[in-house]
Structure formats: C-alpha cells, structure tokens
Design goal:
Length: about 170
C-alpha cells in the first residue's frame, strides 16, 4: 500500500472519529450557554415582537427511564418556565430557520429553531430550542430566516419528544 493511500485512510479514520465529538458539542450547547458565543455560534436575533429564543431556552428537562416490549429507553420531560407557560394557547410570532421533514418545495409540517440546519438527518440543538410547526397552507422552504405566526401549544407528553407545537401557522411578512 502506498504512503498516499495510508495517509488518506488515516485522515478518513480521524475524520470518522471526530465527527461524533463535533455533533455532541453542538447537541449539548444550549442557546443560553455563555460558551456558545465563544464558538461564534449565535442564535438568531429576533425583531418586531417575535418571541426571543432565550425564552424557550429557559425550559429545563429531566430524563426519565421508560420501558416497553422492546426494552428500556429514555425520554426527556420538559419543565416550562412561567414565561413560556404564559404563552401556551396564545398567538405568537416566531423568527427562525426551517428544518424540513419532507422532500418537498413547500412544507406544511416542519421543525423551526434559532440556528440554520447543519445536518440533513437531525437538528443539532436541544429540544427546548425547537418548535414543531404545522401550517394552515404549505410554506415554501427557505434557507434564510423567516417570520411565522400561529398558536403556540406546550406538549409536555409528546411521544416524539417535541416540547412545543405552533399550529395554524402562516408566514408573517
């Protein structure tokens, strides 16, 4: 085997080993963590009456062990702040990035958060910083931040681990 092939294989192995570390660092960094600003990663700054993402970041969670026929598993249970509880059932405006759940130009059910998507398989933020959005009419996907308005619902027992759902959402231009 040539030196070049060994070098390439070594680099690929190193890249393969470090990727989970980078993903873990992103997954465990919260929007209200002061260290997030040291990395240059900043949440979207909202304007014009949109709910700031820092309010969502106040939601804490605990891990609970569950079991079913397939064995044991863990779920995260949210503990909402008073600020977020006050928004339950209210029409709110959010500003953020879409994370599509379907392969379509227009989306009617997608995830929404303060950071642009960085992985096509899952959104690299904590569940307290992700809102599931269900629209009244499909919205064209955008890589740029958008403003949406809808009715916010807290979902403390969602089987998919979603902490919040914005229903009847539409673009707020």
């Amino acid at each position: 085997m040539s030196r070049m092939n060994l070098l390439i294989k070594g680099l690929l192995i190193a890249l393969w080993c470090i990727t989970p570390c980078v993903a873990e660092a992103i997954l465990t960094t919260k929007v209200d963590d002061p260290g997030i600003f040291e990395t240059g990663i900043k949440p979207l700054q909202v304007s014009k009456g949109a709910v700031p993402w820092e309010k969502f970041a106040q939601t804490k969670s605990t891990e609970k062990e569950m079991s079913d026929l397939l064995g044991k598993y863990f779920v995260l249970l949210p503990h909402y702040s008073a600020d977020i509880k006050a928004l339950d059932g209210q029409v709110v405006t959010l500003m953020g990035y879409m994370f599509p759940l379907q392969e379509a130009e227009k989306q009617s059910d997608f995830l929404f958060g303060p950071f642009p998507p960085s992985c096509p398989f899952h959104y690299h933020v904590n569940p307290n910083q992700v809102v599931e959005v269900v629209t009244s009419k499909p919205i064209k996907f955008s890589y740029h931040p958008i403003r949406i308005k809808g009715r916010l619902h807290l979902t403390p027992k969602d089987p998919n681990g979603v902490f919040y759902i914005l229903r009847q959402a539409q673009l707020d231009e």
